[in-house]
# Entry
Amino acid sequence: MDSGHVRTIAVNSMKSENDMDPTEFHVAVVGAGSWGTALANLLAVKGYRVDWWVFEAEIKDQILESRENEVFLPGVELSSNLNPSNDLAAVVSGKDLVLVVVPSHVMRETTLKMAAHLDRETIVVSASKGIENRTYLTMTGVLQQTLPQIAAHHLAVISGPSFAREVARQLPTVVTAACRDIEAAALVQQVIATPYFRVYTSDDVVGVELGGSLKNVIAIAAGMIDGLGLGLNTRAALITRGMTEIRRLGVKMGANPRTFTGLAGFGDLILTCTGDLSRNHTVGKKIGQGQKIKDILAEMRMVAEGVKTAKSVYNLSRKVGVDMPIAHETYRILYEDLPPKEAVYRLMTRDLKPELDEI
# Structure
Protein backbone atom coordinates (compact mmCIF):
# COMPACT_ATOMS: atom_id res chain seq x y z
CA MET A 1 0.00 0.00 0.00
CA ASP A 2 1.38 3.43 -0.95
CA SER A 3 2.51 5.29 2.19
CA GLY A 4 0.55 8.40 1.25
CA HIS A 5 -2.63 6.52 0.39
CA VAL A 6 -4.35 6.72 3.78
CA ARG A 7 -3.46 10.37 4.29
CA THR A 8 -4.83 11.28 0.86
CA ILE A 9 -8.08 9.48 1.55
CA ALA A 10 -8.27 11.11 4.98
CA VAL A 11 -8.18 14.56 3.40
CA ASN A 12 -10.80 13.52 0.87
CA SER A 13 -12.94 12.12 3.69
CA MET A 14 -14.42 15.54 4.30
CA LYS A 15 -16.57 14.85 1.23
CA SER A 16 -19.93 13.10 1.31
CA GLU A 17 -19.65 9.43 2.25
CA ASN A 18 -21.22 8.62 -1.11
CA ASP A 19 -18.06 9.96 -2.81
CA MET A 20 -15.84 7.11 -1.55
CA ASP A 21 -15.44 4.09 -3.80
CA PRO A 22 -15.42 0.98 -1.55
CA THR A 23 -13.54 -0.99 -4.20
CA GLU A 24 -10.50 1.29 -3.78
CA PHE A 25 -10.27 0.98 0.01
CA HIS A 26 -9.22 -2.25 1.71
CA VAL A 27 -10.72 -3.11 5.08
CA ALA A 28 -10.55 -5.97 7.56
CA VAL A 29 -12.50 -6.84 10.69
CA VAL A 30 -10.87 -8.83 13.48
CA GLY A 31 -13.41 -10.62 15.66
CA ALA A 32 -16.68 -12.44 15.01
CA GLY A 33 -18.73 -11.98 18.15
CA SER A 34 -22.10 -10.28 17.81
CA TRP A 35 -20.62 -6.77 17.52
CA GLY A 36 -17.83 -7.81 15.18
CA THR A 37 -20.34 -9.64 12.99
CA ALA A 38 -22.69 -6.66 12.87
CA LEU A 39 -19.91 -4.23 11.93
CA ALA A 40 -18.35 -6.57 9.37
CA ASN A 41 -21.71 -7.05 7.71
CA LEU A 42 -22.43 -3.30 7.78
CA LEU A 43 -19.22 -2.66 5.83
CA ALA A 44 -19.89 -5.53 3.45
CA VAL A 45 -23.44 -4.40 2.70
CA LYS A 46 -22.04 -0.93 2.05
CA GLY A 47 -19.91 -2.42 -0.70
CA TYR A 48 -16.51 -3.13 0.84
CA ARG A 49 -14.87 -6.50 0.27
CA VAL A 50 -14.26 -7.35 3.91
CA ASP A 51 -11.60 -9.81 5.01
CA TRP A 52 -12.88 -11.04 8.37
CA TRP A 53 -10.92 -12.91 11.03
CA VAL A 54 -12.97 -15.54 12.84
CA PHE A 55 -11.25 -17.26 15.77
CA GLU A 56 -13.17 -20.56 15.75
CA ALA A 57 -12.71 -22.79 12.70
CA GLU A 58 -16.16 -24.30 13.14
CA ILE A 59 -17.83 -20.88 13.12
CA LYS A 60 -15.90 -19.86 10.00
CA ASP A 61 -17.03 -23.04 8.22
CA GLN A 62 -20.62 -22.54 9.36
CA ILE A 63 -20.64 -18.93 8.10
CA LEU A 64 -19.32 -20.02 4.70
CA GLU A 65 -21.98 -22.72 4.48
CA SER A 66 -25.04 -20.79 5.65
CA ARG A 67 -24.02 -17.08 5.39
CA GLU A 68 -25.10 -16.65 9.00
CA ASN A 69 -23.27 -16.50 12.35
CA GLU A 70 -25.60 -18.92 14.08
CA VAL A 71 -23.71 -18.75 17.39
CA PHE A 72 -23.23 -15.03 17.98
CA LEU A 73 -25.76 -13.28 15.70
CA PRO A 74 -28.38 -15.80 14.61
CA GLY A 75 -31.08 -14.87 12.15
CA VAL A 76 -29.03 -12.26 10.26
CA GLU A 77 -28.17 -12.99 6.61
CA LEU A 78 -24.55 -12.08 5.93
CA SER A 79 -23.35 -10.37 2.76
CA SER A 80 -21.44 -12.26 0.10
CA ASN A 81 -18.82 -9.47 0.36
CA LEU A 82 -17.67 -11.00 3.65
CA ASN A 83 -14.65 -13.31 3.46
CA PRO A 84 -14.31 -15.16 6.79
CA SER A 85 -10.93 -16.68 7.55
CA ASN A 86 -8.97 -18.19 10.44
CA ASP A 87 -5.71 -16.75 9.03
CA LEU A 88 -5.14 -13.55 11.02
CA ALA A 89 -2.00 -12.55 9.12
CA ALA A 90 -3.71 -12.82 5.74
CA VAL A 91 -6.75 -10.90 6.97
CA VAL A 92 -4.88 -7.82 8.21
CA SER A 93 -2.11 -7.65 5.60
CA GLY A 94 -2.22 -4.82 3.06
CA LYS A 95 -5.24 -3.08 4.57
CA ASP A 96 -6.06 0.62 4.70
CA LEU A 97 -8.21 0.14 7.81
CA VAL A 98 -8.46 -2.68 10.34
CA LEU A 99 -11.38 -2.74 12.76
CA VAL A 100 -10.57 -4.75 15.92
CA VAL A 101 -13.62 -6.14 17.72
CA VAL A 102 -12.37 -8.75 20.19
CA PRO A 103 -13.04 -9.03 23.94
CA SER A 104 -10.82 -6.66 25.90
CA HIS A 105 -9.02 -9.46 27.75
CA VAL A 106 -7.70 -10.91 24.47
CA MET A 107 -6.89 -7.58 22.79
CA ARG A 108 -3.20 -7.76 23.73
CA GLU A 109 -2.71 -11.37 22.62
CA THR A 110 -4.58 -10.87 19.35
CA THR A 111 -2.94 -7.63 18.29
CA LEU A 112 0.56 -8.88 19.14
CA LYS A 113 -0.05 -11.56 16.50
CA MET A 114 -1.17 -8.87 14.03
CA ALA A 115 1.79 -6.56 14.52
CA ALA A 116 4.22 -8.02 11.99
CA HIS A 117 1.62 -8.04 9.23
CA LEU A 118 0.28 -4.48 9.41
CA ASP A 119 1.41 -1.64 7.15
CA ARG A 120 2.67 1.43 8.99
CA GLU A 121 -0.01 3.62 7.39
CA THR A 122 -2.93 1.38 8.34
CA ILE A 123 -5.65 2.98 10.43
CA VAL A 124 -6.42 0.64 13.34
CA VAL A 125 -9.83 1.14 14.97
CA SER A 126 -10.86 -0.40 18.27
CA ALA A 127 -14.53 -1.21 18.70
CA SER A 128 -13.84 -3.08 21.97
CA LYS A 129 -14.81 -1.67 25.37
CA GLY A 130 -12.78 -2.43 28.43
CA ILE A 131 -9.81 -1.62 30.66
CA GLU A 132 -6.99 -4.15 30.94
CA ASN A 133 -6.78 -5.66 34.43
CA ARG A 134 -3.00 -5.71 34.80
CA THR A 135 -2.06 -2.36 33.24
CA TYR A 136 -5.29 -0.33 33.61
CA LEU A 137 -4.88 0.66 29.95
CA THR A 138 -7.79 1.33 27.63
CA MET A 139 -7.78 -0.58 24.34
CA THR A 140 -5.91 2.09 22.38
CA GLY A 141 -3.39 2.13 25.21
CA VAL A 142 -2.90 -1.59 24.66
CA LEU A 143 -2.59 -1.01 20.91
CA GLN A 144 0.16 1.55 21.43
CA GLN A 145 2.17 -1.15 23.16
CA THR A 146 1.37 -4.07 20.84
CA LEU A 147 1.52 -2.14 17.54
CA PRO A 148 4.49 0.21 18.02
CA GLN A 149 4.84 0.80 14.28
CA ILE A 150 1.36 2.38 14.12
CA ALA A 151 1.49 6.05 15.09
CA ALA A 152 -0.92 7.27 17.77
CA HIS A 153 -2.68 9.45 15.20
CA HIS A 154 -3.54 6.28 13.26
CA LEU A 155 -5.25 4.63 16.27
CA ALA A 156 -8.96 5.32 16.58
CA VAL A 157 -11.98 4.09 18.50
CA ILE A 158 -15.72 3.91 17.88
CA SER A 159 -18.22 3.89 20.72
CA GLY A 160 -21.78 4.85 21.51
CA PRO A 161 -25.24 3.40 22.16
CA SER A 162 -25.25 0.50 19.73
CA PHE A 163 -26.67 -2.96 20.32
CA ALA A 164 -25.30 -5.32 17.66
CA ARG A 165 -28.64 -6.89 16.83
CA GLU A 166 -30.28 -3.51 16.18
CA VAL A 167 -27.39 -2.43 13.95
CA ALA A 168 -27.71 -5.73 12.07
CA ARG A 169 -31.43 -4.96 11.57
CA GLN A 170 -30.41 -1.56 10.15
CA LEU A 171 -32.28 0.35 12.84
CA PRO A 172 -31.08 3.99 13.12
CA THR A 173 -27.98 4.08 15.34
CA VAL A 174 -25.59 6.93 16.18
CA VAL A 175 -22.01 6.57 17.47
CA THR A 176 -18.76 8.53 17.81
CA ALA A 177 -15.42 7.90 16.10
CA ALA A 178 -12.50 9.35 18.03
CA CYS A 179 -8.86 9.83 17.10
CA ARG A 180 -6.14 12.28 18.08
CA ASP A 181 -5.96 13.24 14.41
CA ILE A 182 -9.36 14.65 13.46
CA GLU A 183 -8.70 13.87 9.78
CA ALA A 184 -8.23 10.20 10.64
CA ALA A 185 -11.44 10.34 12.71
CA ALA A 186 -13.18 11.81 9.66
CA LEU A 187 -11.85 8.95 7.55
CA VAL A 188 -13.26 6.38 9.96
CA GLN A 189 -16.52 8.33 9.95
CA GLN A 190 -16.73 8.18 6.18
CA VAL A 191 -15.84 4.50 5.93
CA ILE A 192 -18.36 3.31 8.51
CA ALA A 193 -21.29 5.72 8.12
CA THR A 194 -24.44 4.58 6.34
CA PRO A 195 -27.98 6.03 6.12
CA TYR A 196 -28.87 3.99 9.22
CA PHE A 197 -25.52 4.24 11.05
CA ARG A 198 -24.62 7.87 11.69
CA VAL A 199 -21.10 8.64 12.94
CA TYR A 200 -19.86 11.80 14.67
CA THR A 201 -16.17 12.62 15.23
CA SER A 202 -14.15 13.54 18.30
CA ASP A 203 -10.50 14.01 19.24
CA ASP A 204 -11.12 12.89 22.84
CA VAL A 205 -9.95 9.28 22.63
CA VAL A 206 -9.58 8.94 26.40
CA GLY A 207 -13.09 10.20 27.14
CA VAL A 208 -14.77 8.10 24.46
CA GLU A 209 -12.99 4.94 25.59
CA LEU A 210 -13.59 5.48 29.30
CA GLY A 211 -17.25 6.27 28.73
CA GLY A 212 -17.69 3.07 26.74
CA SER A 213 -15.84 0.97 29.29
CA LEU A 214 -17.07 2.31 32.61
CA LYS A 215 -20.74 2.29 31.64
CA ASN A 216 -20.61 -1.52 31.64
CA VAL A 217 -19.82 -1.53 35.37
CA ILE A 218 -22.71 0.83 36.12
CA ALA A 219 -24.96 -1.31 33.91
CA ILE A 220 -24.26 -4.33 36.09
CA ALA A 221 -25.27 -2.26 39.11
CA ALA A 222 -28.44 -1.10 37.33
CA GLY A 223 -29.30 -4.71 36.54
CA MET A 224 -28.95 -5.55 40.22
CA ILE A 225 -31.40 -2.76 41.07
CA ASP A 226 -33.91 -4.25 38.63
CA GLY A 227 -33.27 -7.77 39.89
CA LEU A 228 -33.92 -6.62 43.44
CA GLY A 229 -37.15 -4.93 42.32
CA LEU A 230 -36.17 -1.54 43.77
CA GLY A 231 -38.03 0.52 41.21
CA LEU A 232 -37.45 3.23 38.64
CA ASN A 233 -36.53 5.99 41.10
CA THR A 234 -33.60 3.93 42.30
CA ARG A 235 -32.43 3.05 38.81
CA ALA A 236 -32.60 6.67 37.63
CA ALA A 237 -30.57 7.81 40.64
CA LEU A 238 -27.99 5.09 40.09
CA ILE A 239 -27.54 5.97 36.41
CA THR A 240 -27.14 9.65 37.24
CA ARG A 241 -24.68 9.16 40.08
CA GLY A 242 -22.93 6.50 38.03
CA MET A 243 -22.21 9.10 35.37
CA THR A 244 -20.79 11.37 38.06
CA GLU A 245 -18.29 8.64 38.89
CA ILE A 246 -17.46 8.04 35.22
CA ARG A 247 -16.84 11.76 34.70
CA ARG A 248 -14.66 11.99 37.81
CA LEU A 249 -12.33 9.28 36.63
CA GLY A 250 -12.42 10.52 33.06
CA VAL A 251 -11.38 14.06 33.99
CA LYS A 252 -8.64 12.68 36.23
CA MET A 253 -7.31 10.71 33.26
CA GLY A 254 -7.35 13.76 30.98
CA ALA A 255 -10.71 13.46 29.22
CA ASN A 256 -12.90 16.35 28.14
CA PRO A 257 -15.86 16.41 30.60
CA ARG A 258 -18.20 17.36 27.74
CA THR A 259 -17.61 13.95 26.18
CA PHE A 260 -19.61 12.35 28.98
CA THR A 261 -22.74 14.31 28.05
CA GLY A 262 -22.59 12.81 24.55
CA LEU A 263 -23.07 9.53 22.75
CA ALA A 264 -20.11 7.72 24.31
CA GLY A 265 -21.16 9.01 27.73
CA PHE A 266 -24.78 9.34 28.73
CA GLY A 267 -25.99 7.84 25.44
CA ASP A 268 -24.22 4.53 25.92
CA LEU A 269 -24.82 4.53 29.68
CA ILE A 270 -28.60 4.89 29.34
CA LEU A 271 -28.83 2.19 26.69
CA THR A 272 -26.71 -0.34 28.58
CA CYS A 273 -28.43 0.31 31.92
CA THR A 274 -31.96 -0.06 30.57
CA GLY A 275 -31.91 -2.20 27.42
CA ASP A 276 -32.97 -5.84 27.48
CA LEU A 277 -30.19 -6.68 24.98
CA SER A 278 -27.48 -5.55 27.42
CA ARG A 279 -25.38 -8.49 28.61
CA ASN A 280 -24.02 -6.45 31.53
CA HIS A 281 -27.50 -5.46 32.70
CA THR A 282 -28.57 -9.09 32.37
CA VAL A 283 -25.68 -10.26 34.55
CA GLY A 284 -26.56 -7.70 37.21
CA LYS A 285 -30.24 -8.58 37.12
CA LYS A 286 -29.50 -12.25 37.69
CA ILE A 287 -27.26 -11.36 40.64
CA GLY A 288 -30.06 -9.22 42.08
CA GLN A 289 -32.37 -12.21 41.73
CA GLY A 290 -30.02 -14.33 43.83
CA GLN A 291 -27.80 -16.13 41.32
CA LYS A 292 -24.03 -16.41 41.83
CA ILE A 293 -21.70 -14.69 39.40
CA LYS A 294 -19.69 -17.86 38.67
CA ASP A 295 -22.88 -19.70 37.69
CA ILE A 296 -24.06 -16.82 35.49
CA LEU A 297 -20.77 -16.59 33.62
CA ALA A 298 -20.60 -20.35 33.16
CA GLU A 299 -23.87 -20.19 31.20
CA MET A 300 -22.72 -17.37 28.89
CA ARG A 301 -20.95 -17.82 25.52
CA MET A 302 -20.63 -14.06 24.96
CA VAL A 303 -18.60 -11.74 27.20
CA ALA A 304 -20.04 -9.25 29.70
CA GLU A 305 -17.14 -6.77 29.67
CA GLY A 306 -18.23 -5.04 32.87
CA VAL A 307 -17.26 -8.00 35.05
CA LYS A 308 -13.55 -7.74 34.22
CA THR A 309 -13.67 -3.94 33.93
CA ALA A 310 -15.06 -3.69 37.48
CA LYS A 311 -11.75 -5.04 38.82
CA SER A 312 -9.73 -2.59 36.71
CA VAL A 313 -11.87 0.37 37.74
CA TYR A 314 -11.70 -0.54 41.42
CA ASN A 315 -7.91 -0.73 41.40
CA LEU A 316 -7.34 2.22 39.06
CA SER A 317 -9.66 4.59 40.92
CA ARG A 318 -7.97 3.76 44.22
CA LYS A 319 -4.55 4.24 42.65
CA VAL A 320 -5.37 7.73 41.32
CA GLY A 321 -7.55 8.77 44.27
CA VAL A 322 -10.97 9.07 42.62
CA ASP A 323 -14.13 8.46 44.68
CA MET A 324 -16.33 5.89 42.90
CA PRO A 325 -18.64 4.33 45.51
CA ILE A 326 -21.06 2.66 43.07
CA ALA A 327 -18.23 1.08 41.11
CA HIS A 328 -16.53 -0.03 44.32
CA GLU A 329 -19.66 -1.66 45.72
CA THR A 330 -20.22 -3.40 42.38
CA TYR A 331 -16.68 -4.77 42.56
CA ARG A 332 -17.30 -6.06 46.08
CA ILE A 333 -20.48 -7.81 44.98
CA LEU A 334 -18.69 -9.46 42.04
CA TYR A 335 -15.42 -10.34 43.73
CA GLU A 336 -16.02 -10.35 47.50
CA ASP A 337 -19.55 -11.81 47.57
CA LEU A 338 -21.10 -8.72 49.20
CA PRO A 339 -24.90 -9.12 49.20
CA PRO A 340 -26.49 -6.58 46.79
CA LYS A 341 -29.00 -5.39 49.40
CA GLU A 342 -26.17 -4.59 51.79
CA ALA A 343 -24.39 -2.65 49.03
CA VAL A 344 -27.51 -0.55 48.46
CA TYR A 345 -27.77 0.20 52.18
CA ARG A 346 -24.09 1.20 52.31
CA LEU A 347 -24.56 3.58 49.39
CA MET A 348 -27.73 5.14 50.78
CA THR A 349 -26.26 5.76 54.23
CA ARG A 350 -22.97 7.36 53.19
CA ASP A 351 -22.18 10.81 54.60
CA LEU A 352 -24.50 13.47 53.20
CA LYS A 353 -22.87 15.99 50.87
CA PRO A 354 -23.56 18.52 48.05
CA GLU A 355 -24.55 17.02 44.72
CA LEU A 356 -22.15 18.86 42.45
CA ASP A 357 -18.42 18.17 42.37
CA GLU A 358 -15.87 20.90 41.83
CA ILE A 359 -15.10 19.41 38.39
Observations:
- Residues 1-18 have pLDDT under 50 and may be disordered.
- The beta strands are 27-30, 50-53, 82-85, 97-100, 123-126, 155-159, 173-179, 197-202.
